[in-house]
Amino acid sequence: MQAASKIDQYNSPDLLQILDLKLADKPWSRMKGLLGQTGLTDNKGLWIIPCNSVHSLFMKFSLDLIWLDKNQQILRIDRDFKPWHFATCLKARSVIEVAAGTVDRIGILHDQYSKG
Fold it and tell me: Known PANTHER family for this protein (predicted)?
């Protein structure tokens, strides 16, 4: 299921309209994540809900992680998250995983989508 069909349900900001996201909101899709993928094309990614921790075990490429709170405001951005690592953002409600470099390429700034 594409995240675009869930945007109104999750009251998402413009950030989620810029990116072409697949929604992972069921146990199996959240558990599988991007495992088995060899990469992501421009502006494509995975939006995992709920999620406050990820791993990149067995991954074949680096990611940018965009951690969101319950109002889809950016809490933190982790750039170039390498394979075989773990990351946690305890206050996060969800995370967007995109190809490494996407955050800088499209100019996502923490303050742009945060309440401050």
Answer: UPF0127 PROTEIN MJ1496
